[in-house]
Amino acid sequence: MGSKNCEETPRQKMIAMMYLVLTALLALNVSKDILNAFIVVNESMESTNITLSQKVEGNYAMFEKQMAISPEKVKENYDKAMEVKKLSDELVGYIEDIKITVISLSLIHISEPTRPY
To answer: Which sequence spans correspond to the domains of the chain?
Structure first.
């Protein structure tokens, strides 16, 4: 554990394993307050995402308006913005899929706690 030049004794290995098991048991016994804090953070992030999405959509609307007015000036940046929009929409979709998967698995685990994963 502490020194690198000598091998751990069986006692040290057992103590390390006990600490690992204790840490795992503590992690499984997460209090309701901590879980509620995650819910609050999630709701705050979703609210922020809605606000920012509205602002971003306004920016894309301005891009389209400028594209209609003077395409020769705006075309290069408009194309880049549309590529960024496409990539960010894909990333958001991927993150939402992961979020749904995690929630689904946690609900399955709650309803079938003896099911191995």
So the answer is: 1-29, 31-111
Length of the chain in terms of residues written: 117
Confidence label for 51 from pLDDT (cuts 50, 70 and 90): very high
- Within a 13 Å sphere around the CA of 100, how many CA atoms are in the beta-carbon half? 6
CB 100 within 8 A of CB 93: no
Q: How many CB atoms lie within 10 A of CB 55?
A: 8
Query: Are 15 and 26 within 8 A, CB to CB?
Result: no
Helix axes 32-69, 71-111, angle to 10 degrees: 160
Degrees, nearest 5: CA angle 80-52-74:
25
Average pLDDT, the chain: 82
Both structure tokens of 30: 């997460």
pTM for the whole structure: 0.58
Q: Indicate the SS3 state at residue 52.
A: helix
Tally the C-alpha atoms within 13 A of residue 98's C-alpha that lie toward its C-beta: 6
Per-residue pLDDT tens digits for 57-88: 999 999 999 999 999 999 999 999 999 999 99
